[in-house]
Amino acid sequence: MLKSKAKWNFTNIEDDAIHWMDNLHHLSPVIQELLLQRGITTEDAASKFLAPDLSDLHNPDGLLSMDKATRRVHQAIEQQDKILVFGDYDADGVSSTTVLLKALQELGATCDFYIPNRFTEGYGPNEQAFRQAFEEGYRLIITVDTGIAAIHEAKIAKELGIDLIITDHHEIQEELPDCYAIIHPKCSPDYKFQELAGVGVAFKFAESLLGYFPNHLLAFAAIGTIADLVPLVNENRILAYYGLKALTATDNYGLKALKAVCKIEGEVTEEDVGFLIGPRINAVGRLQDADMAVHLLMTENKQLAQEMAEEINAINQERQQIVSRIVKEAEQMVDNTDNQGVIIVAKEGWNEGVLGIVASKLVRKFDRPAIVLAIKPDSGVAKGSARSIPAFDLFQNCMTIKQLFSSFGGHSQAAGMTIQLDQLSAVQSALDELIQSKLTEEDFKQVIHVSQTITIPEISEELIHEINQLAPFGMDNPKPVFHIKNLPTQARQIGSMKNHLKLQFKEENTVLDGIGFGMGELYDYLTPHTEINVVGELGINEWNGIRKPQMMIQDLSIAEWQLFDHRGKRNVNKLNFMEFEDDFLIVRNGNQQSFDDAIPQITYQCNLEQLQEVETLFIYDLPNELTALKQLIQMTKPTNIHVCYYVEDSTYLRAFPTREEFKWLYALLMKQREIDLKQAISGIMQSRGWNKDKVLFMLNVFHELEFALIDNGMLRLQAKPLKQDLQSSMIYQDRLQQAEIEKILYYSSYEELRKWFTEECMDYLGRPKEELSYGL
Hints:
The protein is an alpha/beta fold. Helix content is 38%, strand content 19%. It has 24 helices and 27 strands. Helix 8 packs across helix 9, helix 8 (218-227) crosses helix 11 and helix 10 (253-261) crosses helix 13. The chain is elongated and about 135 Å long. It starts with 6 loop residues before the first strand and ends with a helix.
């Protein structure tokens, strides 16, 4: 039995919600259910979801203050006033800046942009930047993807005589900035969609400014919308859907150069944006200022675009190296502590720009919330980022101890903070107490939301094509995860380091490969003739012109008991027992050499009443009686059994004397009455071709049954022995029994041994006999 690493939550839908699907017979039942899971409960909604239409986008005028802001910008353009676009340093901020800049330039505006430096200025508008803009002659500043919390900066702008237009999408605070205009979906109660990304709001503003729908800006809208992880539904879905098409066919030199360094060819997908394009744009703002990323998207020079894209790619590679180094150092810090609550690691010299990525990696590895901080010894503070697990609301819990932070902000799963160094231990203790009081052991596990169980024959290219109609996938529209329960026909480790797992399933005429990246170590936990539960995403693998379905495995489990066969291996003592934590037990015979005293072990002769249940049992020696093994297993109730014994001198393989051979030897003794064993044994061996063991065994049986007496190397036949059957001899019976034990436990096939354990020892599993022998 193998437990899954994550908690699998299967999505359920109400039976009465299915009736409306009767009109969609052209869709497979799988797709129908996936639509229902997304809350799509009408035929019209299904059609709109599967075929997004730009005409379904809402009118920008529905956003509060849109008309006022548009008039002010047109006024500035007419008067040739300088306009400053103030953006943010992430992919959403960069794409928002680009969208608005391109719209303003198209209208003939005198404009430029400003993005604060993450390290010297921090997040959002700041007073110094506004004062500098004023000195440079700017009287209109438009923020994109930032500014909704800039209370002080708005006040400064007003004092300076700068009109400030804020376009943003972040959470509204208790107080709104006092500025010329705010364009924000959540400040517009009548606007029908509240979850636009920063670039979505900027796109709406650009549409209002231009007076027509700006198709040429859709590619940038897709980048910010997908990279910022906003819900990919409603307007966001439409913008991302058409934006990806625009990215695929773009003539923008910067985007084409960026695609080239990312090695993106053909159709651009949301995964290309999320894992290739977005991280490269983000990398610039993480390690330096984000200006280069904006210049890349704005340039009209092909050669310059190629040079900037290559430089950005190099910055991203540097970012990856920095992340890798910090992750390694942070993991070592975690390994060296006994803390089982919230992870807090801090070190001087860590790059602030990548600490959120590091925290995410720690969460995935250790299944615990992680706070990663860079220590600033000059100011006596530690500054960084945090990520959490689904069961622990980071924002709410940190807010209960907000007095321990110098600054704090974020949401349930991510946050940023500054902490005084002398408060670190207090924060650690407080968060540990909170998490341990609120969460159970199960709550710490990662969660995989499983869409549905599917059979191998249901999987085809056609089905996967249907599933892809639900793309682009993202927040609130996750890529479906499917569950399969089947017997793998093949299992092997792949990759140069053997760190990946490949499974193959075959049922009827359908073959499905499953790839589990980074799951190579699970190969040793698989056993023959054992069904595996796997969950993962379906896709198409294309190699040398051959296309076939494939599952990208996210997790796996085995629900039935497992038999691991190490019989006959001399180096089996090298098994790493520490992998099994404390829930294992080793069985040895009393006369065998024991392992280290720290390793839990028992003998067949122990007091069975004192035994406790264990998950894994290692059987290192054959028992003297099968009943002893049966009783031991029934008391410990293992779900995994490792048979590790090695038979050097096999009883089963020795020739067992026949009754006729016993008669011949007895007749020989009767002729001589008394013999010298040393001389007689050698003669018997030569004349009959028997080995010494066989001769001694037969003589010992005669001795035990008192047919003969052995004394001082001499054997004398009894004159009138009692009549006894050979099988009444304990020596005779012990040898028969030992041979039978070896036959069942050592010389049997894997299938035979598994069946014997199942039927003879494991009735505590409570399964009927027909099911016990399944697959044997």
